[in-house]
Amino acid sequence: MGLSAGDRVDFIRMEDGHYAVVPASHSIRSLKGIVPRPASQSRGYAESDIRWIHRRMIGIDTNLLVRYLAQDDTAQSPLASQIIDGFTSEAPGYISQVVLVETVGVLTRSYKMPREAVARVIETLLRAREIVVDRADAGYLALATYRTTKGDFSDALIAHGGRLAGCAETLTLDKPAADHAGMRLVNR
Question: Is 140 in contact with 100 (CB distance < 8 Å)?
Fold first, then answer.
């Protein structure tokens, strides 16, 4: 499993009721600058004042995470790097499911990253020892669905999150969500 003393291990409940042991052995630093730079120049946001201390878990939003991944803004990327590079396993960063979904959308639509490259980013975020992802169990399941179907990551996360919460099914009006994420299509 490639574990070292002090590494975090996640126990992920699978849909069949069994558990998978997944080591959180990756580093978020391997994602720094992974997004290819677009042809357009930086939007040049003004530098903001950073006043926080790494003594506890700190949540980050999509903008901060994308600036870290892309390293494409001369003002904001260094600030994002200062924050995220300061995370440790003892004082990790926190990524909500909303941030995870929005990041997938930004990387796919704005940066035109290939599906498998986006999947590698998601997997590294889920396995990063310096990051805690909200409902990582649903994230791992959604990632598996995203990799093996043409469905949206967000639809897969909704469907798996519902199943893990005990829902008998998740209803949708969206045919692709029903076809790829395992939701039930509601017809007239």
Answer: no
Dump pLDDT digits (tens) for 148-171: 999 999 999 999 999 999 999 999
Cα distance between residue 138 and residue 164, in whole Å: 7
Element containing residue 128 per DSSP (H, E): none
What is each CA distance from 112 to 35, 106, 141, in whole angstroms?
9, 8, 23
Residues 123, 117, 17, CA angle at the centre, nearest 5°? 30
Give the position of tokens 């260094």: 78
List for the chain the helix, strand, coil content (%; round to 5).
45, 15, 45
pLDDT tens, residue by residue, 54-70: 358 999 999 999 999 99
DSSP code of residue 91: S
Mean of the per-residue pLDDT values for the chain?
85
Beta partners for residue 12, in sequence order: 20
Is 92 within 8 Å of 131 (Cβ atoms)? Answer: yes
Residue partners of 67: CB distance under 8 A and separation at least 6:
73, 76, 77, 79, 80
Following CA atoms 13, 15, 21, 26 in sequence, which dihedral angle do they give, to the nearest 10 degrees?
-100
> What's the pLDDT band for 30 if we cut at 50, 70, 90?
confident
pTM: 0.75
Of all helices (H) and strands (E), which one includes residue 94? Answer: strand 93-95
